[in-house]
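Prompt: For my understanding, could you write out one protein's sequence and backbone structure tokens?
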Amino acid sequence: MAALADAAIHLVATKGMRGLTHRAVDAQAGLPEGSTSAYFRTRKALIEGLVRRLAELEQAEVQLDPADVAGSIAGVLERWLTTGRERTLARYACMLEATHHPELRGILEHGIAPREQAEQLAAALGSVDPRRDGGHLVAFLEGLLFYRLVGAGSTLEPANRDDLKIAVEKALRF
């Protein structure tokens, strides 16, 4: 199923949500027609599988070094803007799709883990309101990613870890 979800991620990143069909996933994965439908009966199930795979891959990448939290986060952001660009594009496409299809919002609850991690980080760094500050941190990081990926910042020089680290250090001042 990971191969199907990976194919779906690629399709959403390169063709948008309209390009995500069971047949297109079959073709992208190099499998016989009907293979995707055997695992993901509906479009909603296919999107859910895609989002679960995104969460799995992203959570595996988020390993923070307590001695260099800002550098660790900057490294993750740099990967998500470069080698993980397709995954980041697919995640944002799913988030935008959910604004028009409320039934998909529950699927995106996989994003709760990063908020919980941010709250724990805020508490460890001395925040007096970790829930609020953790939420602000996630919002800042998502905004930075979006800006550098598809916003006006996408026309700037490629993101580099040092610049990202400076931005993250500022955001970590609670």
